[in-house]
Amino acid sequence: MIFTETLFKNVFIVDMQPITDNRGWFSRIYCKDEFRQTGFSGEWVQMNQSFTASEGTVRGMHYQHPPYSETKLVRCIAGKVFDVIIDLRESSETFMQWFGIELSAKNKRAVLIPEGFAHGFQTLEPNCELIYCHNEMFMRGVEGGIAYNDPAIGISWPLPVTEISERDLSHPLLNSDFKGIKIK
Ligand SMILES: Cc1cn([C@H]2C[C@H](O)[C@@H](COP(=O)(O)OP(=O)(O)O[C@H]3O[C@@H](C)C(=O)[C@@H](O)[C@H]3O)O2)c(=O)[nH]c1=O
């Protein structure tokens, strides 16, 4: 795998190095030893998969409150999405900045998102599937959310939003009281 650190400290784009033969290809998508170079040495305790039918759908922007902040490894295995993260780490040099990248079944890229980030995506095609690895369990009541259109962040979504959950429409807007997330 090839790890490329983004402008955000500890956020990595992970590219596969598939080994091809007459049958197709084979590739690692996670290796404890290789991932050490990113600084991540945790353990995946949950894997999730989502399917999104319509192009233009937004899911996000989600995080878990401390002490349940989580690292996520996100990969698109069908279709194409614009994947977005927001740096919520208190005292980070890139605090409140966002970053977006196209993930698709075709480019086979993944993003390693450390604790202290909100995550979301918009589908750029119908019938998109994502898989997630998490190093913390999902817990109701510890979920935090940031509005996909919060002017304090100003994410430029590539398409008009066609579908979004009630929950994602109800995230409160950030105000000056928000000082970020303390990570472990
Ligand atoms: C995230 C999650 C949801 N659920 C349940 C709650 C709800 O009934 C149903 C759908 O949940 P949501 O509406 O929160 O699904 P969704 O909006 O797709 O949530 C996901 O969004 C992306 C952007 C992420 O980063 C993920 O970590 C996750 O937060 O599944 C679980 O049982 N376990 C989980 O880990």
Can you tell me about this structure?
With 184 residues, the chain is mostly beta strands. The protein has a single domain, classed as Jelly Rolls (Sandwich). Helices cover 4% and strands 39% of the residues. The protein is built from 2 helices and 13 strands; from the N terminus they run ββββαβββββββββα. Strands 1-2-10-7-12-5 form a 6-stranded antiparallel beta sheet, with no helix packed on it. It has a 5-stranded antiparallel beta sheet with strand order 9-8-11-6-13, with no helix packed on it. Strand 1 and strand 2 form a beta hairpin. The longest helix has 4 residues. The radius of gyration is 16 Å and the shape is globular. The mean pLDDT is 97. The site of dtdp-4-keto-L-rhamnose (TDO) has 12 residues, from strand 5, strand 6 and strand 11.
Summary keywords:
RmlC-like_jellyroll; 13 strands; single chain; mainly beta; RmlC-like; isomerase; 6-stranded antiparallel beta sheet; binds dtdp-4-keto-L-rhamnose; 2 helices; 184 residues; 4% helix; Jelly Rolls; dTDP-4-dehydrorhamnose 3,5-epimerase activity; dTDP-4-dehydrorhamnose 3,5-epimerase
Query: According to CATH, what is the class?
Result: Mainly Beta
**Rg result:** 16 Å
* Biggest β-sheet strands, sense, barrel: 6 strands, antiparallel
Name the average pLDDT.
97
- Strand order, main sheet: write it out: 1-2-10-7-12-5
CATH fold-type name:
Jelly Rolls
Name the structural class.
mainly beta
Please identify which CATH superfamily we are dealing with. Jelly Rolls
The set of bound ligands, ions and cofactors reads: dtdp-4-keto-L-rhamnose
**Low-pLDDT sequence parts:** none
